[in-house]
Amino acid sequence: MGSDLEQYEAGEGGVTLHTWTDVQGIKKENFYITGMPGTPIPWWFRKVLRQKNLSDMVYFPHTPSCFYA
Question: Is the pLDDT of residue 5 over 90?
Fold first, then answer.
């Protein structure tokens, strides 16, 4: 079982963050959130990242990062 985080471009210049837990090849506990670059990420999504032992992010990135791809 592993947790993953993807970032990709959204419409209107936004960035979408998608996290899930992989359980035997099946994506479970999916969470998506979209925001404008540089704006704060809501506390509830940051809590999800910490629970999945992923890097905490305070603000939406300016461009999707290859680090999470």
Answer: no
Long-range contacts of 55-61 (CB under 8 A, 24+ apart): 55/5, 57/17, 60/14, 60/15, 60/17, 60/35, 60/36, 61/7, 61/15, 61/37
Q: Would you say 56 and 49 are in contact if contact means Cβ atoms under 8 Å apart? A: yes
At 67 the pLDDT is 46
CA distance 68 to 24: 20
> Percent of the chain, pLDDT > 70?
88
